[in-house]
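call fold target=UbiD family decarboxylase
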Amino acid sequence: MPYRDLREFIKRLEEEGELIRVKAPVSWDQELAEVFVRACKEKNRAILFEKVEGSEFPVLIGQLTSQKRVELALERDSKELDDEIENLLNQPRNDFPPKIVGSGSCQEVVMTGDDVDLLKFPVPKFNEKEGGRYITAGVSISKDPETGARNAGIYRMMVRRENEINVNFGFPNRHMLRHFQKREKEGKPLDVAVVIGCDPAVWLCAALPLAGKIDEVAQAGAIRGKAVEMVKCKTNDLEVPADAEMILEGELVPNLKRPEGPYVDFQGYYTKAKDNYVISIKCITHRKGAIYDTSMTGRLPEGEMEVYRYLLSKQQKTQLKKAIPEIVDFTFDPASMGHIYIASISKEKPFLAKEIADKIWSFPWSIMIKQLIIVDSDIDVNDPSQVMWALATRVDFEKDIYLLPGKQGPSFDVATAGRPAVTKMVVDATIKLPVEGYPGKFPEPGSPSKEVIEKVKKKWKEYGIR
């Protein structure tokens, strides 16, 4: 059965040894973040902080920041995801559309008017020089004013005061921003609901860059194999997951921006403060004993970026294999925060690495890639030690590195100061053929036979090695 809510998922994580509870009091002001960072370096697990100073609500962080926890969230292992990813993430699904119900536990407590106070909740401040406390894991729901199509996305939000937050969209093509721009032309606000603490399938669908024609909540229903139950908001016409922990109901205010930041983004550096859009909060509803869900970017690869590395690279690999059948596997190095990609290929002809690189640059999401490393199919792209070995032993740096000037770069890249046109790099770390200029036959890597490797894999538990 799919998880009904975040609490059922927390229970599963605890059963699997993937969650630890911190009972000692912590401050929301940087201390919580530092404990999480240090704990992840020892062993990457989710943490539930049961006592956060100044608030009655506990805080969950890191619920989806590992491959295992993502697989638990989707109730599929890596092989099953490889087989299903095209159908689950790249194709619109409406076989389990959202189900509207009359009431939900997310509205057990209702705060309106002067009772609306975001500062009662343990919204963290993660780093010393950040501009304020940040909502980072909220699923923002809006509807297209023209078509009524629902969108769910995740955007960073700074708490400005008790009933007001900034929202940073990051990219100009975000769907909620498009919805808002249509309303703003009319001088009208856009209704918004921010969902904090929901079924992990809903969160993952909101976090991933799904096509605009996809309703993320319906897509989550397809992943779950069961419709997501939704309840009408108290102060606007939107629907939200009925068993979420907390809902912020508000509106994006037209023709109004206020300072937001600095904030440590996924690259690990402070961004500059700048004027960003404002959401006025009209109502807060929550479950009794609500759990505040958060995420953290920047300081550790085991943070929010790991979610994207695991699922996004699977989604991209599926797209690539349609255009480039020689692609075997594809991912990015988590420590590079999505800037260094590694592709393994089945090399059946010479100079294939450069040809494949040219095709990869044609995809819109390649704007993020600064360096592309291409390796042979015997290299596990998810094992940094194997990739480094290929770089050290299969690259002639005089011949196998290609610099490609004039490529579009991301506006938030601190290394290039956001220049629109940058130089990118391709490293051909494949075994070279004689026709590619290698003198003779490339030496064969040493290894036990495939039969012995498979035998050891099957018998591993018998060896008693822990």
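return ok
The two ends are 32 Å apart (CA to CA). The longest strand covers residues 246-260.
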